[in-house]
Amino acid sequence: MGGHSHAPPVGQGSGPNTGSRYTSRLAIAFALTAGFFVIELVAGLLSDSLALIADAGHMATDVVALGAALVATRIAGRPDSTGKRTYGRYRSEVFAAGLTCLLMLGVGVFVVIEAVGRIGAAPVVGTRLMMIVGVIGLVVNLVSLLLLRRGSQDSITMRGAYIEVLGDAAGSVGVLAAGILISATGNPIWDVIVAVGIGAFVVVRAVSLSRSVLRVLGQHIPEGVDLQEISADLGQVPGVAELHDLHIWALTSGMNVATAHLVLAPGADAHRVLDAAQQMLTTKHEIEHATLQVEPADHSMCKDLTW
Questions:
Q1: How far is CA 38 from the centre of its chain?
Q2: Which regions span the lipid bilayer (predicted)?
């Protein structure tokens, strides 16, 4: 005997999918970022500032990443009419976050390599234009961060977008600092130093996000979920004599899924055990999509499994 729940996840994963609740905010952040990217790239080329060009390169990844996240949140909410995707399209959000990681790593490494190549050179850097663009960029990034902050706590796609914009905000601060330092000292080496700092920051943030993406794709236990606690709680459900084959993973952000085999105690009512177990998983651990197999004590087929 088995049972399952088709209700949407509760808490952070409520609704068709978590990221879709923030589509409008994501769209505004995308428009702001795309507009500023053009301004910063032109300003970087005119001022010959590697820091500005580096930040514009990072901004380019933002445009692609935010666009991918925007498309992914829309795709994730679409029902599957083919019958081939039994879990729907929710994983598209995770793939978008993975694309963001790759873009961030590529830009970060490229910027560091370009900065190293400039060591020893003495280009004339237009500091006034650098600082003006840095201020504009900081304002744009702060607005985008406010738009994406709430969603970043719920969705891995939104978290990727938020980290991208956070990196840009740090880049804008770096551009401002480089402009001030070059103006004060007359030494263009600060442009290179800031560019390396921006590149390193981007790489570190990309690695951090990559770990979350791989955790979902590898079907690891979701962050914040205690497998031992859930196992103990299921074992304490009245009528459960034994528990085995417990698996918990995340379909996407806020959508945790579980499967387990519950061995009944003699005389236990299977329906009551199933209802009590699902109720406990829903209310205490926010796992509504749980597939539970209820077995009599003399059931032995599961013992033949090797994985």
A1: 26
A2: 26-46, 52-73, 94-117, 129-148, 160-182, 188-207
Region 153-173 average pLDDT = 77
Whole-structure pTM value: 0.67
- The secondary structure of the chain in percent helix, strand, coil, rounded to multiples of 5, reads 65, 10, 25
The SS3 assignment for 295 reads: strand
Q: Are strands 255-264 and 289-295 parallel, antiparallel or unpaired?
A: parallel
The pLDDT value recorded for residue 228 is 93
- Beta-ladder partners of 294: 262
Are the beta carbons of 156 and 97 closer than 8 angstroms? yes
- For CA atoms 222, 227, 229, 231, give the dihedral sign: positive
Phi and psi of 223, rounded to 5°? -60, 135
Name the nearest CA neighbour of 259 among 270, 273, 244, 272: 244
| Residue 235 pLDDT | 92
Query: Could you tell me if 124 and 48 are in contact, meaning their C-beta atoms sit under 8 angstroms apart?
Result: yes
CATH placement of domain 2-217:
1.20.1510.10
Which pLDDT belongs to residue 306? 60
Give CA–CA dist 240/127, Å, rounded.
71
**CATH topology (fold) of 227-304:** Alpha-Beta Plaits (3.30.70)
